[in-house]
Design goal:
heterodimer; A: 223 residues; Rossmann fold; 10 strands; 35% helix; globular; B: 270 residues; mainly alpha; 13 helices
């Protein structure tokens, strides 16, 4: 699988009646990521998250196109092809368990309950997640554990494209090593794009690192 | 298949969530009939004064308001639940996560309020059981197939109004003028608590613009007078025309509101 962004422009409009100018997040971004792991680096506000959201079909670009295997794809199709893990791990239902959350989001992604449970059982141990963690209500989890569940949600879909925004945030050393191991296992079959400020971990994970500056390509960065 | 899977997932998630609020869950089940007792005693005090206005329905005040309240309580679920559920998804930060999945607009709308309708059906059964066993209401004259048709048309109409209302929630987060109208005027002007013949002409004209007026009147006629298509046909036709316009328009406009929120990057905002 090969995912590509061509000429993506995105300006977030200013609030209506609120005054002020819009925020230009992407100014004609070009980005290519094939099977393997591609890193995205850049300063705060450079457009990394916006780029990932456009690639995932979550956010609609103002202009430009996203292609999968050379073919322009609609945002609806991208949401089917791409599994996206946001930087904020709190997009879950706090009153139900982690396992029930995974079952729910798995169902929305087309996974039968047994398949979602099987994926969780396989992928949870490397991330340091126990059955007790998964059985706990989501609001009883630590921030780091929430982040692990968020990663598990994205990994469980086994989508051809996997986009991870700040995946290492809040993870302990063992979980980071576990995640790196899982990503290494996926690198032969999945196009993985990781946005992270952690240069060391990004260097370990990614075969190449692209730099985004002010919403455009800043070239390839040294690993 | 995916739509059904999404609906089942939402139902399970919402049931587990509601059950986790144990006190609220128990109170919700127990509180269904508390309001109706107010009307029972109002009927004792003032019921006979409304007799001329109730003559077309062939029933007394308490039976009239009991039936209308049970009916309106169910169809009103659609009017309120969509915006309420959407607002909840926004506030708890799950809306963007849900809409990041391949779920379609239609599947999302079907699944979002599935629990509300299931619970409303449970409440309706409680009403029905109380009607038969507690208050011993005489519903022998009912034309149940016609009543079911009115029920279905009304539920679709109010669900559409609810979906339209949720467009405001999607775009503006707070400030929902349609919900304000629905919450404050439908019960008052639609014949739920008293027949609309009580209104002065200018207010009756406003009442005739609301789908609830046709829904309540048609339901009352079919249940209490056994009216069929001939007697209630005008109201049934009005409901059908409302549905023809509102159902596709509401789904399309909701889809547009999601797309607008995606473009503005506000799915994760509340």
């Amino acid at each position: 699988m090969f995912i590509e962004a061509r000429g993506i422009e995105k300006t977030f409009p200013a609030p209506a009646f609120g005054g002020g100018a819009g925020l230009r997040a992407l100014a004609g971004l070009d980005l290519k990521a094939g099977t393997g792991i591609t890193g995205l680096a850049g300063p705060n506000g450079s457009g990394k998250t916006t780029a990932l959201k456009v690639l995932a079909g979550v956010l609609l670009a103002d202009s430009g196109e996203v292609l999968a295997d050379g073919k322009p794809e609609s945002p609806e199709r991208l949401r089917a092809l791409v599994s996206y893990c946001p930087a904020n791990p709190r997009g879950f239902y706090f009153r139900i368990s982690a396992a029930e959350n995974l079952r729910f989001f798995g169902a929305l992604a087309g996974l039968p309950p047994a398949e979602a449970a099987g994926a969780a059982a396989e992928l949870a141990p490397p991330l340091g997640l126990s059955a007790a963690d998964l059985g706990r209500r989501f609001d009883a989890l630590s921030e780091g554990t929430m982040q692990k569940v968020s990663l598990l949600r994205a990994l469980s879909r086994r989508a051809p494209v996997l986009l991870l925004d700040e995946p290492f945030r809040g993870l302990d050393e063992a979980a980071c090593a576990g995640l790196l191991g899982l990503l290494s296992g996926l690198s032969g079959s999945t196009a993985v794009v990781i946005a992270s400020h952690d240069a060391a971990l990004l260097g370990k994970a990614a075969g190449r690192i692209l730099r985004i500056t002010d919403g455009t390509n800043g070239g390839e960065a040294a690993r | 298949m995916r739509t059904l899977r999404a609906a089942a997932a939402f139902l399970r998630k919402d049931f587990l969530t509601e059950r986790s609020y144990r006190l609220s869950f128990a109170l919700g089940a127990a509180g269904t009939l508390s309001g109706i007792l107010v009307f029972y005693f109002i009927d004792k005090l003032f019921g006979s004064a409304l007799a001329p206005h109730l003559a077309p329905y062939g029933t007394g005040y308490f039976t009239y308001v009991f039936t209308a309240t049970a009916f309106f309580g169910y169809i009103g679920t659609g009017a309120g639940a969509y915006s309420e559920r959407l607002r909840l998804e926004q506030a708890q930060g799950t809306l963007e996560a849900v809409l990041s999945t391949p779920i379609t607009t239609g599947a999302f709308l079907l699944a979002l309020t599935a629990w509300n309708f299931i619970f409303a059906t449970f409440e309706l059964l409680v009403y029905a059981a109380c009607a038969v066993f507690l208050f011993k209401l005489d519903l022998a004259a009912a034309n149940w197939p016609a009543a079911a048709l009115v029920f279905a048309l009304s539920a679709a109409c109010f669900a559409s109004l609810g979906i339209l209302s949720s467009c405001f929630v999607m775009l503006f987060k707070r400030g929902n003028p349609l919900a304000w109208v629905l919450n404050n005027f439908e019960g008052l002007l639609g014949g739920v608590y008293f027949p609309v013949t009580l209104f002065p002409p200018w207010l009756a004209a406003v009442s005739n613009l609301l789908p609830v007026t046709y829904a309540v009147r048609a339901f009352q006629l079919t249940v209490h007078k056994g009216a069929g298509l001939a007697a209630a046909g005008g109201d049934i036709l009005a409901l059908a025309l409302f549905d023809l316009a509102l159902v596709p328009a509401s789904v399309y406009l909701f889809h547009l509101s999601i797309e607008r929120a995606r473009r503005a990057g506000t799915l994760g905002q509340y």
